[in-house]
Amino acid sequence: MFEYFGAVPSYVVCDNLKSGVRKAHRYDPEINPSYQDLAMHYKTVVVPTRPGKPRDKAKVEQAVLHAERRILAPLSDKRFIGLAHVNRHIRVHLKELNERPFQKLEGSRKSWFDTWERSAMKPLPAEPYEHAEWRKAKVHRDAHIEVRWHRYSVPYRYVGRSVQVRLTDTTLEVFFDDKRVATHPRSHQKGVTTKDEHMPDAQRQMNDMSRFVTEAERIGPDTHNIVRQIIDAERHPLIRYRTLMGLLRLARIYGKSRMENACTRAIAIGTRSYRSIASILKNGLDKHPLDSVSPPPIDHDNIRGPSYYDTKSDSPHQTSKD
């Protein structure tokens, strides 16, 4: 609308629609963050009408009626092949409506706008507005937030804090107390984006790893063994960090005793991955004795056994005729 006007009004009076007003209130309405972001870009103010007071925007309601009669009605019997096709036809009828002479006054809507209103408006900013989506996120222990299956780093001092995230097609910005604390190129794929300056120093990383070790020792020796193996593995610190977080979270969900039994079974079958231990706990395999890991061989007449291949025939797979 502002681009069509070629100027910006001092304030915008909107209805209490959800895309504009998150929570309606007569004295202190809560504006939708994306709508507020647009208003800040154009240096204008959003002033919603009072709830349940249609007379606050009587002129707007009258303009909607004119648009329905002069624009939508003539297009009601036409077929369109896309939104662009519809918009082209709307612009033609909109131009006719704005240039249509008044019945009782001199001029038209366009001439009055050019004469009286445009001069009272502010100029457009140099850059057009880029639509942004706002959402909340919590900074995880690994100093990352997750937005649409992609993780972005945030300065380590904000671990455990809730932050505001501003998303555009090209950029992701993180705000805390209305202050921007991180900026990343937007990624539309699953993965991780990390800046080294956001990560804790080596000493802090060692202290964090020691915290995992201490917690694993409280669970049991086999849990401690697996945690030590993960820490000593030559993997990216972020991957190790998240794996350890996941493992110790399993202990809080299933209990220390079951976690220790699951780690004992994982060591017996030669694995230390989070998925394997989680599968053991989910399927209750930690409740079975370890001798069930490799069941004894079955002795049955229909099973050939090793003696089947101990023959004097030319081929070990050749059977003798009865």
Summarize the structure.
With 322 residues, the protein is an alpha+beta fold.
Structural notes for this entry:
With 322 residues, the protein is α+β, with helices and mostly antiparallel strands. The protein has three domains: 2-120, Ribonuclease H-like superfamily/Ribonuclease H (Nucleotidyltransferase, domain 5); 133-198, no CATH class; 202-292, no CATH class. The protein contains ten helices and eleven strands. It has helices at 2-5, 33-41, 58-75, 83-99, 109-117, 202-219, 221-232, 237-254, 256-269, 274-282; strands at residues 11-12, 21-23, 30-31, 45-46, 133-138, 144-147, 150-153, 162-167, 171-176, 179-185, 191-193. It has a four-stranded antiparallel β-sheet with strand order 5-8-9-10, with no helix packed on it. Strand 6 (144-147) and strand 7 form a beta hairpin. Helix 3 crosses helix 4 and helix 8 (237-254) packs parallel to helix 10 (274-282). 14% of the residues are buried. The model has no long low-confidence stretch (mean pLDDT 86).
Instruction: Return the average pLDDT rounded to an integer.
Output: 86
Share of helix, binned:
25-40%
Largest sheet: number of strands, sense, barrel closure: 4 strands, antiparallel
Structural class: alpha+beta
Task: Enumerate how many helices there are, as a single number.
Answer: 10
Shape: elongated
Number of strands: 11
CATH topology label of the largest domain: Nucleotidyltransferase, domain 5
Fraction of residues in β-strands: 5-15%
Q: Can you tell me the residue ranges where pLDDT is under 50 for at least 5 consecutive residues? A: none
Q: What is the H level of CATH, i.e. the homologous superfamily of the largest domain?
A: Ribonuclease H-like superfamily/Ribonuclease H
Q: What radius of gyration results from the CA coordinates?
A: 34 Å
Q: What CATH architecture label of the largest domain applies?
A: 2-Layer Sandwich
Q: Into how many domains do the coordinates divide?
A: 3
